[in-house]
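DM from R.C. (forwarded with permission)

"hey, sorry to bug you on a friday — could you get me a structure for this? deadline for the figure draft is monday and I only need the backbone to look sensible"
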Amino acid sequence: MVHRRVVVFGYGPLAVTSLQTLAALGVKTETLVVPGNRTGDDVEVAASYARSMGIPTRVQPARKRIAPFLAQIRALGPELFFVWSYSMLLPQELLGLAPLGAVNLHGGLLPQYRGGHVMNWAIANGEQETGATLAYLDEGIDTGPVIAERRFPIEAHDHAGTVRDKLKLAGAALLHDWWPAIERGTAPRVPQDESSARYYRMRTADDGLIDWSMSNRRIHNLVRALTAPWPGAFATVEGTRLVIRRTEPAGTSSAAPGTIVSTSNGDVRVATGEGDLRILDAEPAWARLTVGKRLNS
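My reply, with the result:
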C-alpha cells in the first residue's frame, strides 16, 4: 500500500496514541499540529513525543493570523488530516488542503454527544456506555458523516481516568482497523441522524461546583466525571474550596441539602436533594467539616 501524506492535529496523551498507532501502521506523519488556544503539560507531552519521533510540530494560530500557517501546511502537500483530542476548529480553507478529507476520532458517540468534553459529560449524565467514533470533518461541529464507532461500558467503579483509558484503547483499535480504507478513500460515509443530535459545550472548572439540591447519584456521577487530571468537583466551606475526589451514595436523612449529617470515624456524610452522599476523599483535609455545617453557604 502507498501511504498518504498525513498531518495530525492533537494534544495530550490521546495525540500521542494517534502518533503511535499511525507509526505502527507504517504511516509517516508529516507534522503534528497543536492548538494555539492551549498551553501546558498536555501540549508539551504531545510535542515532546513528536520530537522524539523526528516529527516537526506546528501551532495552529487564531483565525485572523492563519494565512502563514495555511501556506506552511499547503507546502507539505497533505492528502489526509487526522484529528484526535483537539480544541480548535479547522476552518474550511484549511480542510480544503487535504483532498482525501479530514478524519476525526471523537471521544463519544455521535450524534448524541457532539461538542467538547463529551467523555466527561457522558459520565456526569450517568450513561452506562460510551465509545469512540471515527467521522469525517465538515464545516459543522461533529456533524460530518460517520465511518465507524466502537462502544464500551461505563461501569459503576469507573471514573474519568479509567474511562479515558478505555477510550484510548477503543480509539486506537478503530484507527488501526479503518485506516487502510481511509487511505484508499473507500471508508463509509454514513450521514448522522439529526433528530438524535445533541451538542455539549466545553466544561469549565467552575462547572465542578456541586449543587447539593441534586440527588446523591447525580452528584456522585459529577465527582466521577471530574477526577484528576481534571480540576475536580468541589464545594466551599468557610470560604475555602474543598475538592471532592471520591464519593458514594449513602442512606437518607431529613437534613437540608448541603448539610453535614455525620463525621463519625472519618465518615463524612452530606445531605442532598435525594439521599445522602458519603465523601471518601477530598482536599485539603476536612478538619472544618463538622455536623450541622452547610456547604456552599
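R.C.: lifesaver. The helical segments are 12-24, 41-52, 67-75, 92-95, 118-124, 160-184, 216-225.
me: no worries. The two ends are 64 Å apart (CA to CA).
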